[in-house]
Specification:
Chain lengths: 160, 101
């Protein structure tokens, strides 16, 4: 087990959703080199584009797992394993719920202003990797590389 | 941060301010307010999202429902103040043009 991996086990329910999302949001801050833990924002601090992408995608996948995969189960639990490095983040989430076929989900017709079916589309559009391995347990693997910001002076030098 | 929303009517205009998080947990709390606005056939609805920090697809669905239902009874809906994560989601779903952001 990589000692740098961040791990959490929690009930797979919407009640615990904020806890999991908050953990992922804080892990994103670690990727970006910001402090975390002793300076938690009062609410979600999701403004950096990297954080926006990862948190938005993870929240959608969590919703699907809690609402559909684990629906009706007695005390299901999810397990999260987060690898956060300066190069990016990988979030692995396992659940004991029903299997799911991601290929069966059509892309939403955005011109029709859909009121559902947008979650997986958001996740796929926001991340570099959205993998699913049916179980049990089922495994979602979500990854995003971080593109380091380039200093304006460096850009000026390169373009001169 | 949980959802915080407030409705205020000024003449023909209804201002609906939504702050905090609009997601699968909090969006159902908006349903009765949306229902009232539609039943009252408010001609102009302005949704202020300047205090909204996070939204998910369920929150987007609630706003789309408001938009469709108000327009179905002849009203107009505009959205103002979206920023950061909510604005990114609206752009991804091409709703920034619908909401005139």
């Amino acid at each position: 087990m990589d000692p740098r991996t961040i791990r959490m086990t929690a009930p797979c329910s919407l009640r615990h959703r904020a806890l999991a999302v908050r953990l992922v949001a804080e892990a994103c801050r670690l990727v970006r080199g910001e402090r975390s833990g002793d300076d938690l924002a009062a609410g979600y601090d999701v403004r950096d584009p990297f954080d926006v992408a990862v948190v938005s995608a993870f929240a959608e996948i969590y919703n699907n797992v809690a609402l559909h995969a684990c629906k009706g189960m007695v005390d299901p639990q999810i397990e999260l394993a987060i690898a956060a490095t300066p190069d990016g983040i990988t979030v692995e989430m396992t659940d004991p719920g029903r299997r799911f076929d991601p290929e069966s989900v059509r892309s939403p017709d955005l011109d029709a202003l859909p009121e559902g079916g947008m979650g997986l589309h958001i996740a796929r559009a926001m991340l570099d990797v959205v993998d699913y391995e049916p179980g049990p347990p089922n495994l979602w693997r979500l990854s995003k590389r971080r593109v380091a910001a380039v200093e304006p002076s460096v850009v000026a030098t390169r373009t001169a | 941060m949980p959802i915080d929303f407030a409705r205020a009517d000024h003449g023909d205009t209804t201002n609906l301010r939504i702050a905090g998080t609009l997601d699968v947990l909090t969006a159902p709390g908006l349903a009765s307010t949306i229902e009232q606005i539609v039943e009252e056939r408010r001609p102009k609805v302005v949704v202020d999202l300047s205090g909204l920090d996070l939204i998910d697809s369920s929150g987007v669905a609630a706003l789309v429902a408001l938009y469709k239902r108000v327009r179905a009874v002849g009203g107009q809906v505009s959205v103002t103040g979206a920023r950061d994560q909510p604005l990114a989601i609206f752009k991804l779903l091409r709703m920034d043009k619908v909401f005139l952001l």
